[in-house]
Predict the 3D structure of the following.
Amino acid sequence: MSDTKGRTMYVILLGPPGAGKGTQAVQTAERTGLLHLSTGDMFRENLRNGTELGNLAKTYMDAGELVPDDVTIGMLLERIGRDDARAGCLFDGFPRTVEQARALDEALTAQGQEIAVTVLIDVSNEEITRRLGGRVSCATCGSVFHQVFNPPDASKPCCDVIKLIQRDDDKPEAIANRLQVYADQTEPLVAYYTAADKLSTVNGEQSPEAVGQDLLSALEAVSN
């Protein structure tokens, strides 16, 4: 998928934790041919393969420090230079701050490219708390359930011994902290991409199918 000028399409997905960005990115990538670029997966690949950038990132991680933006962007530029990213990609997990967004813009501009659109999957804090707060997992096998949307089925047990637990980061105080971090660090990106006339907002409280269709419409609007 490319725009009418023939450039590779780069798309950013924004949204709070629990908004469904990862799920929507995978499905949208399958429908459009864009590469779903999860920065978490990208880091793990570089660390696993012991690349120069991966080893450099590891020195910061081992010291308990944040990996500098130029190292992350170096990995990102290497990844989007591969054949499977020729059509473009969906950035999932980067940028997280305005500083990272500026650095990404500069790196893409140097290659004659730019972000086509940033899609915000908009979900209220109340809904995020409801979604994340209901997640439980089986301590025996790790299967994940939701007390409202996907409760465990006693007639179809996930394993011989089901012991449901709630992860620490799904507890109310942890969810509140994650939402505050998002508000402080990532929400300013909404203003940044609005000012650049590159923001499209999708109602993330619809059904997953409706969210996916609106996301596709947002991409089609900038590719035509």
In short: Residues 208-223 form the longest helix (16 residues). DSSP finds nine helices and eight strands in the chain. The radius of gyration is 19 Å.
